[in-house]
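Hi everyone,

Forwarding the result from last night's run.
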Amino acid sequence: MKFSTPSSAAGLLLWLAACEYPSRGAGHLALVLVNPVSTTVQVGDRLRLLATPMDSAGAPMPPGPIVWLSSDTTRATVTTDGVVRGLDTGTVRISARSGETSGWASVTLTRSPPGAEVLVGAGDIADCSTEEDQATARLLDSIPGTVFTAGDDAYPSGSSRDFADCYGPAWGRHRARTRPSPGNHDHRTAGAAPYFAYFGDRAPYNYYSYDLGAWHIISLDGDLDVAAGSPQERWLRADLAATSRRCTLAYWHEPRFSSGTTHGSDAQVQPLWQALYDAGAELVLAGHDHEYERFAPQTPTGEADPVRGIREFVVGTGGADLYRFGAPLANSEARNSTAWGVLKLVLNPGAYTWQFIPVAGGTFSDSGTASCH
């Protein structure tokens, strides 16, 4: 049997396993694949790792008992279900053993620099017909910081009952630290009145702003008039002109760019993008399409712009049923439509890091870092 040398870390583990067990075919345990194979965790935070037994043909095997171990429990501990907790800076090896076979992941523990703040959340969240909103809420349980919502907080119509029965038992326990934005489903009840009643002073108006550490954060409402010259667009430009913060982030429901087939890109919100682009904003977060997608920095018309462009994240993965992608748009850098989860942003003075964290059982992750303009 011949194997070509793979390029990814996970593929390399499978290749090594195949070389070590050349006489074993499919169905024989060759290794335990731990995902992500390399990651970073802030001291004080938690991250769930996933262990998948694999045969030498690279196929997943039926799950069995997994024993988790940390190479240095003074820096990181790991629970019986693979949740790593950072205790001190350094690098540890977290291993997962099934019988006599094991795999491992390299985990680097770091401390947030002074002035760093965490912003974490998603859109398209609470639907009483599904249970995934409970799974994403459990992720928030172990992530400190400010929670954002990218609209469609309570399905199907943003009614008082939807917020009480669907959102409340899940993400509702984080209401005191949540800064929401509404979506089209929240607006199905006149004036989104239950949305405002539920969040109270956490959502003082349809659109508002606040400062988070060294960053200026703006929550907008894509279901109101967003045309150039509209009250919201004029307010946005005035708000951007008034801030002294170097780094700016905005979020609302409808994405300017999306490779999703259900809704796709929304050209109507381009005036919001134009105002943010003119002011040198860094990030836009959206939902509406129930997938995760990350774009490279680009202009309001979709041209790559690594110098002044805005990076967009579509993170409609809060709990509602997931959608599908079509052909990827230009500048789309990462996509997934199989995992619910939340986007965690660490906002440092002059820079930021991102990490998509899937719910338990999800294997997709995405992370990176960049500087402000």
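Residues 9-20 form the longest helix (12 residues).

Cheers,
N.
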